[in-house]
Amino acid sequence: MYEDQTYEALLERMLDRVPSSLDKREGSIIYDALAPAAAELAQMYIELDVNNNLYFADTATGEYLERSIAWSGIVRREASKAQLKGIFYKADGGFVDVPLGSRFSLDMLNYMAVEKLSPGVYRLESETAGEEGNRYFGSLLPVDYISDLARGEIASLLIPGENAESDESLRQRYLDSARRPATSGNKYHYMEWAMQVVGVGGARVFPLWNGPKTVKVIVVDAEKLPASELLVTKVQHYIDPVSGAGEGQAPVGAVVTVASAKGKSISVSAKVTLASGYALQAVNDEFKGILESYRKEKAFSATYISQSVIGALLLATEGVADYSELKLNGGVGNVMLSEEEIPLFGNVLLEV
Asked: What pLDDT is attached to residue 294?
């Protein structure tokens, strides 16, 4: 808006207001007096332009984005703690129960036993919020002595922890809410309810999937992977704990079934020509990371995985000069996805 209000333009306008009979050349008293003021005014216009952008949801960031959309009731999601399955054993290999509230450490993180799932099997909660708690699997060390405990381990991730919501994610949720109003138990209302459960990273709704008044909600976790049984149960309990009774978010009479998305494994193979100085293993790992980002982006938004797009991603991988014989699931062509499926890239094999 104020791109034309540069230091040079401001100084020229100021000097034009000085009579020509006075010396206003560079280095003169008048010039040296006006130049600092022009510089400050130019800086003010820059800051004014930035501040104007902070008032609107499409350009605001941070706290100002939160304040600009506060009227809608949409707030930034805080970082959540990872939920993991912990298994504890006696010296003879049998299961042993541990007290709820017991704390355990693994590398630099601590976990707490918060729920008993079965004998010797517990739901652990990371004491560190965010994605950091998702990364660790292995042997646990008790912080305090626990009788009969020989060893413990983290066996699987139940509900991924999430970092605080990014500006782009928050902005997109706000825009989606404005463009697709969720009201009166419509399709988008069910999507909104599902996304309100901590750990849910996406949802798809199928109205009338099994007859009148039936609704099916398919969810993925924060990593855009098939949701665990625990997460599915949490969503079911939040939306419709007693079928049709209206004791959750769903209206009376709506029979809601919540299920996890199905993962479709996709293998990728190709022959590549490496750029000078690059090793095949490093390039393969880099390509896997790119595929993982692409997978998260396309979960619940793609109806197929395009071979040409995968080829473009491979060619854009650092160290790849060219490729040939690209195959998805051993064949040539796109891989189709059903409405309940999300892509999972399995074996990725690059050869020279």
From this structure: 94
